[in-house]
Amino acid sequence: MYSYKIKNSILLFLLCASFFIACKSENKQSPAENDPKEETGKEVGGLELTTAQMQTVGITIGKIEDRNLSAVVKANGQLAVPPQNKADVSILSGGIITMINVLEGQQVKKGQVLATINNQDLLKIQQDYLGSKNNFTYVKAEYERQKQLQAADAGTGKSFQAAEATFHAEKSKLAAFESQLKQLGVSPARIAGGKFISQFPVLSPISGTVGQITANTGAFVQPGTSIMEVVDNSKIHCDLTVFEKDLMQVKVGQKVSFQLTNQENELINGRINGINKSFENESKGVIVHAVIDNVQQKNLIPGMYVTALINTGNRQMPTLPIDAVIRFEGKEYIFLVTGEEKKNNNTIFRFEKIEVKTGVAELGYIQVIPLKQLPENSRVITKGAFYLESKANGGEEEE
């Protein structure tokens, strides 16, 4: 019996000890479970601010508003001049260049002497011209004599007809020689006075700027060879490529803003004055011509690449101030207010970064298109978004 009592006492002691240890362990764990989370003043990513913080850095909250912005079509292209404002200076008769009177980039006027060509065949043309001119004098006199005889019924009709045919043939021949001399820049009147020349001038076909000169003094050039070009940039225009999806929005007369590649903030205005009626190769693009209003006399050169915005009208678009949009790693974002909470006489705002696409920018506002559906009457940061982006990326100050 005594042994039985001892065993019961030991068992009771062990049960009490186990219960005590279990209670003590539970008491140690429960404070950790019941204690509130340490308040750090931010959610994941640091997208939480108080009103005091927002006032300090100038952050404001507002809504996405519809505004009447200009709708535009973006197009790329390059500057060009009309065919009648660009000329290749060629020669009709081969010869040796004895002098080049201009330099590349020099301004010239129509009819100005650009170069001089030495051509021995020119002497033969002048001889033939003088021979034809002298013969025409005789033929003309005979024609007039036969004409008078015919009028007086003193001559034969056959003689008059022969004289008349010879007269018109020699007249045409003489006119052909004169035209040939004029094309070579030689005055027929000067040759008629017996002043033969062995050189003829190369004249500028238009007024403009001398472009690339492809020949040197002393070089022999073949007939039809271009030795330089002259470009008149006063009529420079832009050839833009507009793709099929935007083509129906583009009309003649619409305003265009041009920006030269690699020259930021240099805008030039113009307007659409022509639209091609066929696609370019396989690109499904149509060439649209726009005249340029170069009132500032900028140095525009054919071949320069440009980016253009074609104003296709005005329409209501969802917009935000430009400062509300931040750019990170090639994407664009805004900050959406996801909640607010009153605590200790202060309001805590929570934010979420939302990716958007942007469009037209005008007068400090920009079109925004969220990539996901936003709740109705959503509020977003309208100013100071860059500060919240800095906090989200680890730039938050320690409190």
How is the secondary structure organized here?
Layout: H1 2-34, E1 48-50, H2 51-57, E2 60-63, E3 65-80, E4 86-90, E5 95-100, E6 107-108, E7 113-118, H3 121-151, H4 157-183, H5 188-192, E8 199-203, E9 208-213, E10 220-221, E11 226-231, E12 237-243, H6 244-247, E13 255-260, E14 267-275, E15 285-293, E16 305-321, E17 326-328, E18 331-343, E19 346-362, E20 365-370, E21 379-383, H7 385-395
Antiparallel strand pairs: 1-19, 2-21, 3-12, 3-16, 4-11, 5-7, 5-10, 6-9, 7-8, 9-11, 12-15, 13-14, 13-16, 14-15, 16-20, 17-18, 18-19, 19-20
Helix pairs in contact: 3-4
Describe this structure in words.
There is one protein chain. The protein is α+β, with helices and mostly antiparallel strands. 30% of the residues lie in helices and 38% in strands. It has seven helices and 21 strands. The chain has a six-stranded antiparallel beta barrel. It has a four-stranded antiparallel sheet with strand order 4-11-9-6, with no helix packed on it. Strands 8-7-5-10 form a four-stranded antiparallel sheet, with no helix packed on it. Helix 3 packs antiparallel against helix 4. The longest helix is centred in the first third of the chain and has 33 residues, at 2-34. It is elongated. The two termini are 72 Å apart. The model is unreliable at 24-45 (pLDDT under 50).
